[in-house]
Design a protein that fits this description.
With about 240 residues, the chain is α/β, with parallel strands linked by helices. The chain is built from 11 helices and 9 strands. Strand 7, helix 10 and strand 8 form a beta-alpha-beta unit.
Amino acid sequence: MSATEQQRQYLQQLIDDAGRIAVLTGAGMSTESGIPDFRSADGLWSRDMSLADVVSIDYFRRAPVAFWQAFREIFRIKLVGDYQPNDGHRFLAALEQAGKEITILTQNIDGLHGRAGNRRVLEMHGTLLSASCPDCETPHPLDYVQQHEVPPCRRCGAVLKPDVVLYGEAVPLIDVAFQAALNADLLLVMGSSLEVSPVNLIPLEAARAGIPCALINYTPTRFDSLFDLRIQAGIGETCRGLHA
């Protein structure tokens, strides 16, 4: 039996033994659906600003029109792409359908976990699928946002803010995410380099609490020592060897 097959069997056992599973997903989950990591978009615009400067709450407040121009350029491929859930998304949905209590803690903003069928999805960095008014809080769907270069609130006319957590904003669901991980029988991290704080502290707290932790990621992370199991491979190829 190969080392990879042994790892997959160990992961299968961890999943089988867990009734409640918290799943932390990062950009690696979305890239397997063909969605590029937006951090690779740096340099798409001819401004002497970093990605963190452009996609920030300060820039939105200071220059909302310029913000939307840059935001659309950075996220254009995600906004217009017809992306579908991949084998990793579908496997997590199948686990829920099989009776597992699955809580998705996702850093992704593409909505694919919900489209795959998981019902408890904490979108910790928000979503690209809607925008809200910063003044009157009226929500607006993506199809309305796409009709305007700089979308105005239908109620009060203020420039809408995308429902994405921008640099400089707090992560509103982070406490709920930590609690979900600490209440789980297994924490499964899929496709995250664990470089973004405070989300990257979730496996640290879970490991400290004695919760089994498993990682599927193409590349090593600086938190690898926390995990009981590390599979350095693709999410889809790994999940295709598992059953719900």
